[in-house]
Amino acid sequence: MLNAVNYEESPANLNQYRALRSSRRLFARNLLGLASMVTMLVATPVRAAESVLVAAMGGYRKPVLELIEAFRKETGTEAQAAFGHIKQIETQARQNREVVFLIGDKSLLEPTGLFSSFERLGTGRLVLVTSKGKSLSSLDELKNTAFKRVAIPHRTRTVFGGAADECVKRLHLADALAPKLLEVEGVPQVGSYITSGEVDAGFVNKTEALAIAGRTGSVLELPQSCYDPIEISLGTVKDRALTEAQSRFQAFMQGDTARRIMTANGL
């Protein structure tokens, strides 16, 4: 028969018992902390793999954000977007291997040599928008004294800046409008200048014109004969294996929901 130990009668044994219990509690806490750490280390890559990062040209901010929100609701998969001009989003794609998709004008995306494939998303349309309180019915009216400053996106870094420049030249208005043209970074900046009244008119895409509707004057869609066709595409970066989440996004972009969003945004 085992004999019970009376710790009250032995201070030394009592101290040993307390030390043992304390050591066991410390070990249990450390073991729990280690388990939590292992769980975090295992779970974090899974969460990262279940997200999608898209880089897009700034002129398509509104439809891209709508696409991402619709994708989240439809699939339950997290997605984020970064915006900029072609050089900025190209740099992001080269430096960050998580960026697999770029959205923008194919004529600017393709020369980078980054892509294995393109999916056509829509057609870009050049629009002339006036500031609130001003109106016109033809591009020729920009020669009037009422229009002193006309904003245009960067001619070489943006497709719509190049299209506007091309259109003005084809319609033989380049010399008359040259003193009035104010070149800015991109389409969103032109939109901001128009709505703030800093310029009398500006060249944007139809997507931007729809986004700022109600805060402007006239909206004149320019004839597509005065500039080369603009194809909006989803480019998939080559030499990168798609995760399940990225494959879902690629399939989503080819579906009816994505097409409805693009159409509603003038693309």
Q: Which key features would you list for this structure?
A:
267 residues; alpha/beta; D-Maltodextrin-Binding Protein, domain 2; 2 domains; 5-stranded mixed β-sheet; 24% strand; disordered N terminus; signal; ModA
Structure description:
- This is Molybdenum ABC transporter substrate-binding protein.
- It holds the Pfam family SBP_bac_11.
- InterPro entries: ModA (IPR005950), ModA/WtpA (IPR050682).
- This protein is of the alpha/beta class.
- It folds into two domains: 50-123 and 230-264, 3-Layer(aba) Sandwich (D-Maltodextrin-Binding Protein, domain 2), CATH 3.40.190.10; 126-221, Periplasmic binding protein-like II (D-Maltodextrin-Binding Protein, domain 2, 3-Layer(aba) Sandwich), CATH 3.40.190.10.
- It contains ten helices and ten strands.
- The strands form two sheets. The chain has a five-stranded mixed sheet with strand order 2-1-3-10-4, sandwiched between helices.
- α2 packs antiparallel against α10 (256-264).
- The longest helix is centred in the first third of the chain and has 39 residues, at 11-49.
Query: Helix count?
Result: 10
Which CATH architecture of the largest domain would you pick? 3-Layer(aba) Sandwich
| CATH T-level topology of the largest domain | D-Maltodextrin-Binding Protein, domain 2
Q: What structural class should be given to the helix and strand makeup?
A: alpha/beta
| Overall radius of gyration | 30 Å
What is the helical fraction, as a range of percent? 40-55%
Give, in spatial order, the strands making up the sheet with the most strands: 2-1-3-10-4
GO molecular function, one term: molybdate ion binding
Family: Belongs to the bacterial solute-binding protein ModA family.
Protein name: Molybdenum ABC transporter substrate-binding protein
Keywords: Metal-binding, Signal
